[in-house]
Amino acid sequence: MLEIANLVAGYSGVPVLRGLDLEVARGEVVAILGSNGVGKTTLNKAISGLVPVESGAIRFAGAAIAGLHPSDIVARGLIHVPEGRKIFPNMTVLENLELGSYRRAKPHRRKNLERVFATFPRLKERTHQAAGTLSGGEQQMLAIGRGLMGEPLLLILDEPSLGLSPLLVEEMFGLIAEIAKSGLAVMLVEQNVVQSLEVAARAYVLDNGTVALHGAANDLKNDPRLQTAYLGA
Amino acid sequence: MQSEGVVAIVGGYASAICLATTQAAARYDLPYVVDVGVTDAIVNRGLKNTFRFGPGFGTVTQQAMDNLTKINEAAGKPAKTVMLVHEDGLFGAGLAKLLQAELPKRGFEVLDTLPHPTPARDMTNIALQIKAKNPDILIPSSYYGEFVLLARTMQQQKIKPKAIYAVLNGAASNFRFVKEFPEAAQFVMDCNHWHDPRKPAAEALRKSLEAQGKFWTYNIPMNYSAVLLLADALERAASTDRAKVTEALASSTFADHLMPYGPTKFVNGQNTGAAPVNTQVQGSDIKVIFPAEFSNAKVVFPVPA
Amino acid sequence: MRQERLSLVLSVGLLAGLAVVPLVTAANTVLNFLVFAMILALAAHGWNLLAGYAGQFSFGHAAFFGVGAYGGALLQMRAGINPWVAFLGGIMLAGIVGAVIGALSFRADLRGSYFSLVTLAFAEVLRILVNATPATGGAAGLLIPLDVRFANFQFASRAAFYWIALALVALVTLLMLVIENTRFGAYLTAIRENEDAARALGVDVFAEKIKAMTLSAAITGAAGGLYAQYFLYLDANIGFGPWISIEALVAPIIGGLGTAAGPLVGALALQMLGEMSKTVAGRIPGIDLVLFGLLLVLVIAFMRRGVVGQLQRLAMARGGA
Amino acid sequence: MMFSPEIVMAAVLNGVMTGSVYALIALGLTLVYGVLHIINFAHGAMLTAAMFAVFVGHAVFRIDPYAMIAVVAPLFFALGYALQRWVIGPAAHGSESNVLLVTLGLSIMIENALLAGFRSDTRSIDVPYAFSSLDLGFTFLSVPRLVAFGVSIAVAFLLWLLLARTDAGKAIRAVAKEPTGAELVGIRVEHVFAVTFGLGAACVAVAACLLMPTFYVSPRIGNAFVLVAFTIVVLGGMGSIPGAVLGALFVGVVESLSGLFFNESLAQLGVFLIFILVLLLRPRGLFGAKA
User: Fold this and answer.
1) Which domain holds residue A31?
2) Residue A229 — pLDDT band, cuts 50, 70, 90?
3) Per-residue pLDDT tens digits for D55-65
4) Is the CB of C232 inside 8 Å of chain B's CB atoms?
5) Residues of D with CB below 8 A from A69's CB?
6) Helices A166-181 and A136-148 sit at what angle, rounded to 10 degrees?
7) Which structural domain range is residue B233 located in?
C-alpha cells in the first residue's frame, strides 16, 4: 500500500528525515513510535505533500506520490488526520464532515455520514454545533470522522491521543481498533507506546530521522531495545 | 524651458497651474500670455511678464450678475430667489463667495449655498434640498461630471427652476453634454467665454473642427486668439528679445481675434476689453443670447415647465 | 560588504557626484529635476525610517509633508516669522503631528494593514480640512510672495537652493547611518522582525515606535517645507494629496527598503524613470506612473531589498569568488 | 435647519439606495480580507476598470449596462482569479506588507493605464431608462437606483448562499480559518484564494454595471467609492459579510442625512472620521463580528 524508501525531507534545506524506509501493507495497522522531535510529524507531512521531499521515493497504491500536491494525494485515498486536529472551528460538525468528502467519495456522502455517526455517536448529538465549541476529545473524533468521510485507503493518524484525559485515551484507542477492524490500513503515529502496540500489528521506532527499530508489535513489546531507542539513550 | 531659448509662453487652463507657472516665468522675465485662467490673483501680483487675454473672475461674475439682472428685468422680474451649488475647490468656492455677496445687492434672495466635493458620489441630496427650497434660479458652479450628475438627478426628480444659470461652468457650454444628455441640458444658461458667433473666421474654425468629429469648446478660440495675439506682438517687436516682446504685448491693440472683445488693451496685464457672454442650450446648439450685440438667438426665460 | 558599509559608500559617492553637478551645468531643467529628486529623497527617508527600519507601513505620509509645507508657509505669511525659522517650525509641527497620530494609532495597537489604513485616513482628513479652512487659503491655496533674498529662503540661482536641499539629504542620510548603529536602531529592527518578541525582551515598543514616527514625520515635513519654498505655491492636493504618500513609499522600496542609501537611490531612479518614460511614450498622461506601479510589483516580487540589496548581493558574490 | 418629513424620508431612502451599491463594493473587500487576511488596495482601480469596460461595451458595442453584468462579472472573476493566483500570491511571498504594496502597485498601474487610454475626461452613458422613476408621492424613486438596490441585495444573498450551502463556499470558509486542515481534505488553498479574489472582483464588476446608468466614470473615480468601502468594512468588522451589508446601508443613510443637514463636503469628512474613530476605538467593528 505505502512504501517509503530512503526518504530525505525537511524545512528549507535542513533535513529532518535522513534516509527513512517504511512500509504499510493493505489493511494493516502500523504504529510509528518515537519521542518528540525525531521526525514523526515531518514524516506525515512529507507523505501528505505538506513538506517537500528532497530525495527518496514514496509510493502509494503502486504509484509515486512524492512531489504531488496535497490535494492530489488526498484524491488517491491517502488521508492524513493531523496533529492538533485542524478542524474548521467556524463551521458546524456537519459541515466539517461534509468537507471530508470534498475531494473524494462525494457521491457516498450521505452513506458515509451515517457510518461516521454510527462510529462516533457523540458527533451526531452535536451535528449543528460549531466545531470550535467541542471538547478536545470530540474535536479529535471529528477530525478522524472527517478523514473517514473521504473513504481513505490509508489513514494516517497523527497523535490522536495527545491532550486527552486517560479515560478518553482509552476510548480513542478503542475506536481506532474498531476502525482498523473494517480492513482500512492505518498508520498510527504516537508517543503512547503501550496503547499503540496493543492496536498495531507492526511498529517502527524512529530516532533522529531514521528507523531505529522495527518489527511485529508483539515482539517489540518485549524488546529491551525499545526502551533504549525510545528514551534516545 | 529657460535654457531652451523660449521667447514666450501661451497657456493656462487651470488657474492653480497658472499661478505657479506665471511666477516661475517671472523669474526669467519670460512673457506669458494666459488664455483661459480666471483667478484674479494671476494678474493682481504685479508680475510684469503676465498678460491675460481672457476676462478674469471679477469681470465674469460682474457681467454674469449684470446680465442676469437684465434678463430677469426684460422678462418682467419673474425670479426673486436663488440657490447656489458649487464644487468645494478653488473655482467653485471662490465663485460662490462672490455671488453670495453680489446677489442680494441686485434684489435676489440667496436661499442656500451647497458645496460638494469633486468627485461626488451622489447628487441626490443636493437635488432634494433644491426641491425643498424651490428657488427660482439655480446657479451651479461645478466641473463637468458633477454638473451632469446634478442636471440628470434634477431631471429625474422633476425639479424645474425657472432657470439654471451657470457661471463659468464646465458643462453648460459643452457640446458633449448637449449631445449626450439633450433633455437635461435643454435651456441651461451659462455666462462664460465664448467665441463671437458673428465672426466668419470663428465659425469657420468651428466648422472645420466639427468636420473632424471633435466637440467645439471655448478653449479653442481662446487659445487660437491668444496665439494670434502673441504672433502679432512678435511681428511688431521684430525681435525675439524678451523685453521687447513684453513691451509689444503691453502696447497691443490686436483686434483680429475670434472673441467678442474688440481691440486688445492690456492694463496691468489684464485685457480690459475681455468679457464673457451668455449662452443658452437651445435644441442641439449652444446659442449666444446676451449681450444683444453678439447674440445669435433670443433668450428663453423663464424656462417653459 | 555589509549593508551599512555599502550604504555609506553609495551615499557618499552619490552625494559627492550630485554636489558638483551645478559646477558642470547650469541648465535649469537639470537642476529642477535634481531639486525635485532631493525633495522626494527627503520625504522617502522619512517614510523609510518608519517602514523600512521599524516595519510600520504608513500610507499617509502626505499628512506630514503637508504639515511641514503648510506649517512653514503659514508661520511665515501669517505670523511674519523669518522663512528659515518658519521652515524649522514647520518641521517641528510635522513631528508633533506625527507623534499625535502615532500615539493614537499605536495606543490602539493598530498593526499591519490597519495602521496603513488609519494613516491614509488621517492624511485625507487633513486634506479635506485644509481645503475647507479659510485660514490655510482654502481651496485657493497659498501663494508665498516672490521676494528673492537669501534671508527670505529664496535665491536668484537654482544651484543655491539645490545645494541646500542636497545638504539636507546628506544630513538625513548621516542620521540614518548613525541610527543603524545605535540601540534605537536595534530596537526598531527588533520591532520590525517581531513586535511581540521585542516586547518580551523588554523593549518599550510603544515608546520606540512613537520616537520613530515623530522623527519620520519631521523628516518628511522637511521635504514639504522645501517644496513650499521652492515652488512658492501650495494647495491641499499638493500638500496632502495621495501622490506624495505614494512617491515617498515607492522610492525607498525601489532603492532598498530599510537601507540608508535606498531613499536617495530610489528617488533618483524614479525621477529618471519618469523622465525617460516621458521621452519614450511622449506626453501621454499616466504612462510614467504605470511604470512606477509595475516596478513596485516587480521589485517586491524579485528583489526584496531593491537596488541596494541587489548591489550588496553582487558585492558579496564577488567577495566570495 | 428643518426639512419637511418628506424630504428627510426621501434622503433616507436615497441613503439606502446608495448604501446598497456601497455594500456590493464592500462585500468584495471584506470577503478577500476574511479569507486571505489581506487588504486589496487595487479594489478601487478594479471598480474603475469595470466601469470603463461597461462604458466601452455601451459606446462601442451598444450593449446595455445591465446586460453587461453577464460579460463583466465573469470577465472580472477571471481577471481577479489570475491576478491573485499568478501575480499577487507569488509576488507577496506570504507577507502582509508585501501584499499591500503589490496591490498598491497594481492599483497605480491600472488607474494610470486607464488615464493613458481614456484621458482624464469624465464619461457617461445615456440609456433610455436613465430617467424613469416611480412616483412615491413624497419623492420620485429612480428606477435604475431601485434596480441597483435589488441587484445588490440579490448578489449579497447569492454570495451568502454560496458560502453557506455549496462545497465551494464551504471550502472558502474552511480556508479562511484553517488552511492546513483544508489542504488535508484535498482543498487547493491557492485555488480557493484565487477564487475568493475573483469573487471580490466580480462584485465590483456588478457594482460598475449598476452605477453606470446614472453615474459617470473617470480614471480615478474608483477611489471615491473604495475609501467609503474601507470605512464600511471596518465598521462592519473585517471579514464579516452581514457586517458589510449592514455597515453599507448605515453609512449610506448617515452620509445622505449629513449631506442634507450639513453639506456634501463635510459628509466626506464625516466618513473618514467614523473610519478613524472605529479603527482607534473598536477595530473589530461596530457590529461585533467575531475576530
Assistant:
1) 2-231
2) low
3) 999 999 999 99
4) yes
5) 188
6) 10
7) 9-52+203-271
The single-letter DSSP state of residue C145 is P
**Residue carrying C-alpha cell 432634494:** B128
Cell numbers describing residue D201: 472582483
Strand ranges (E), C176-310: 233-234
pLDDT tens, residue by residue, C226-240: 999 998 889 898 999
What ipTM score was computed for the predicted complex, to two decimals? 0.85
Instruction: Please say whether the beta carbons of A5 and A56 come within 8 A.
Output: yes
Euclidean distance between CA atoms B52 and B35, whole angstroms: 6
Which residues make beta-bridge pairs with B139? B84
C141 interaction partners in chain B (CB closer than 8 Å): 16, 19, 90
B147 and B282 co-located in one domain: yes
How many other C-beta atoms lie within 10 A of the C-beta of residue D204? 33
The closest of C76, C49, C40, C79 to C245, measured between CA atoms, is: C40
Q: Domain D5-281, what fold? A: ABC transporter involved in vitamin B12 uptake, BtuC (1.10.3470)
Shared domain for B30 and B110, answered yes or no, is no
| Pairing of the two strands B137-141 and B109-116 | unpaired
Q: How many domains does chain A have?
A: 1
Domain count, chain B: 2
The pLDDT confidence band at residue B250, using thresholds 50, 70 and 90, is confident
DSSP secondary structure of B203-251: HHHHHHHHHTTPPP-THHHHHHHHHHHHHHHHHHHTS--HHHHHHHHHT
| Residue boundaries of the structural domains of chain D | 5-281
Mean pLDDT value across residues C264-276: 89
Backbone φ, ψ for residue B279 (5° rounding): -120, 160
> Which of D97, D116, D120 has the CB atom closest to C287's CB atom?
D116
Q: Does C235 touch chain B (CB under 8 A)?
A: yes
Phi, then psi, of B219 in degrees rounded to 5: -60, -30
CA gap A157, A145 in Å, rounded: 11
Q: Which of C28, C145, C235 sits opposite B16 (nearest CB)?
A: C235
Q: Report the candidate in B173, B255, B219 with the shortest Cα–Cα distance to residue B37.
A: B219
Within 8 A by CB and 6+ apart from B27, the residues are C146, C148
Checking B281-286 for CB contacts under 8 A at 24+ apart, the result is B281/B172, B281/B178, B281/B185, B281/B186, B281/B187, B281/B188, B281/B189, B282/B186, B282/B187, B284/B178, B284/B179, B284/B182, B285/B178, B286/B173, B286/B175, B286/B178, B286/B194
pLDDT given at position A233:
41
- Per residue in B106-160, pLDDT (tens digit) is 999 999 999 888 888 888 889 988 988 999 999 998 888 889 889 988 988 889 9
Q: What does the DSSP assignment read for C33-48?
A: HHHHHHHHHHHHHHHH
C-alpha cell at A155: 489513514
Neighbouring chains of B at 3+ CB pairs under 8 Å are C, D
Nearest by CB to residue D184, choosing from A82, A90, A95, is A82
Bond from prior residue into B291 cis (ω within 30 degrees of 0):
yes
User: Does the beta-carbon distance from D10 to B128 stay under 8 Å?
Assistant: yes
CATH of domain C2-320: 1.10.3470
| Residues lower than pLDDT 50 in chain D | 289-291
Classify each residue of A107-143 as buried b or exposed e, where b means 16 or more C-beta atoms within 10 Å of its C-beta: eebeebbeebbebbeebeebeeeebeebeebbbbbbb
Distance CA B124, CA D8 (A): 12
CA distance C84 to chain D (A): 33
Q: Please state whether the predicted TM-score (pTM) of the whole model is above 0.90.
A: no
**B27 vs B48, C29, C148, C158, D237, CA distance in Å?**
10, 15, 9, 11, 55
DSSP 8-state code for residue B255: -
Closest partner CB to C139 (pick from B2, B19, B93): B93
Q: In this predicted model, what pLDDT tens digit does every residue of D194-222 receive, in sequence order?
A: 999 999 999 999 999 999 998 889 998 88
Is the per-residue pLDDT at C66 higher than 90?
A: yes
Q: Does B238 touch chain C (CB under 8 A)?
A: no
